[in-house]
Amino acid sequence: MVIPKIYNTYFVACVATVGGMLFGFDISSMSAIIGIEQYNVYFNQPTGIIQGTIGAALAAGSIVGSAIAGPISNRIGRRNSIGFACLWWLAGTSVQTATNGVGMLIAGRVLNGVCVGITSSQVPVYLAEIARKEKRGSLIIIQQLAIEWGILIMYFIGYGCSFIPGPAAFRTAWGIQFVPCLLLIIGLPFLPESPRWLWKMDRADEAIHILANIQAGGDVNDPLVLAECEEITMTLAAERQALPGWRKFVYNGMWKRTMAGFTVQMWQQNSGANVMTYYVVYIFGMAGLTGNTGLIASGVQYALFIIFTTVMFFYIDKTGRRTLLIAGALGMGACHFVVGGLLSMGKVVPGGVGGNPNIPIELTGAPANAVIAFCYLLIIIYAMTLAPVAWIYAAEVWSLETRATGMGISAIGNWLFNFALGLYIPPGFISIRYGIFIIFGAMCMLAAVQIYFTYPETANKTLEEIEEMFAPGGPKPWHTKPGESKLDAIVDEVRTNNLTLEDFTSDKRGLSVNEHTENV
Length: 520
Fold this sequence. Notes:
The relative contact order is 0.14. This protein has a two-stranded antiparallel sheet with strand order 1-2. The longest helix is centred in the first third of the chain and has 29 residues, at 48-76. The model is unreliable at 507-520 (pLDDT under 50). It is built from 24 helices and two strands. The chain has helices at 9-16, 18-31, 37-42, 48-76, 78-97, 102-130, 136-161, 168-175, 178-187, 195-200, 204-216, 223-239, 254-270, 273-286, 291-313, 321-343, 365-384, 386-396, 403-431, 435-454, 463-470, 487-497, 501-505, 513-519, and strands spanning 347-348, 361-362. Helix 15 runs parallel beside helix 17 (365-384) and helix 16 (321-343) runs antiparallel to helix 18.
C-alpha cells in the first residue's frame, strides 16, 4: 500500500518536530520531579555529583546519538533516521519507567538521549532542506516551540503526578513519555523525504516531484522550482569534488562553517539558560519559593518560554540571525550578573535550606523578588534569541554534502556542553554558589564577541548561497546582512526566457539536471 504524502510544509514541520517535543518531555520529567518527596525518598535524596549525573545522562546519550546521526541520515534518509531514533526512545522510556534505582534511571536517560541526539540534529536538517528560503527560520523555530511545549506539558504532568503517593508518582510521569513518540511514529509515513537528500542519492526525478509539490502545488515548470533545481544541481556537482572523509570539514572555507556550526550550539548551552530549565526549582528555593508555590512559579517560566518563542515565529525571517544572537548573548549576560549579584547578598545556610544541600543560600524580601524577576527576564530573552536561532543557524551553515554529519557535529557541541553543565551545576551550587551566575555572564559576553567577528548573516539566502558567505574571499561577517538572494534573479531569468523543465534537460542552459547527475 502506498501511503499518501502531505506536502504542506507547516504540517510536515509540526509532525517532524514532535522529535523536539521528546527532548522537552525528558527535560521537565526531571525538573518537575527532583523537588518532590517521593523522588527524594526513593532515590535517597541525590545531591551534588549524583544528581548531576542523573541530569547529565540524557546529554551523554545525546552525544552518542549526534555522532551516529549523520552517517545514518545519509544512508537511510532524513525522515527514516527520525523513525530510527524513536526505537531508542521506546527502549529508554521503558527502562526509566521500570527503574529500581539510580543506575537504571541513568541507563534509561542515556537511551532516551540517543534518540534526542538524532532528532535534535536531523529534524532541523530535514526542515532546512524542504523549506523556502523566506520561511526556513519560521519552520525550524517550530522545532524549538515543540521542545518548549514538551517542557511545559511534561512539567505540569509531573506536578500533577506529585500528588500520587509513592514511586507511582514518578513512574506515571515518565511512562507518559511513550505518548509523543507513538504519535511521531504514526505521522512519519505521511511525510515526504527531503528532495535535497534524494538529489544527493541520484534520485533527481523523485526530488523534482517533491520539490514541485512543496514549492508550487506540483507544477514542475514553476520558475522557482526550476531555479532551485539548477542551484542544487550546480552546487552538488561542485561539492562532490571536495576532499573525502573528515577533510571535507576543514578544506578551504569549510573550517569556518564547522567552527560556526559547532560553536553556535556550544554558546547556546554556555549561555546558562539550562540553569533555569533544569534547576530553576533550586534557584527559586534560594529566593524563598518552596513546595507547590515553587513548582508553580517554576512552571510559569516555561509558559513564558512558549509565548515569546511564538512571537519570534512571526518575525524570525524578518530579522537577521546575527542581530538576534548578539543581542541575546548580551542580554542574558546582564541578567546572569544581576542574579549572581543579588544572590551574593543572601545568607549561606549550612546543610542547605530545608536540609537540601542543592539550595545553599537563603534570600528574602525585595532581592529575592528581583532574582525571580530576572530569572524570568533571562528566559524571555533566551526564548527570543539563542534558543531558536542557534538551531536555525546551525542547520543553515552546512553544504548539502556535509549537512547531515555537519549538523551532527553541531549537535555534539550542544550536547557535550549540556552534559558538562548538567554534571557540574548541582555541585556548583554547593561549592561556588552565586559565582556560577558570574561565570555564565562572562561566557555570554565572550559569545557576543565571537558571533560578531565570525558569523556571517544567513537569513533569507538559499542554502546554496550561504556557501559563498564562508568561501575564501567571502565578505567579512560584520558586512553581511539579510536577503540579497541570487535565486530571485534566476527565477526572473526563467520567467523571461519561458524556460521549462524540458529546457533544463535538453542543455539549453549549460549542463542539464540529468547530465549533472550522470557526470557526477
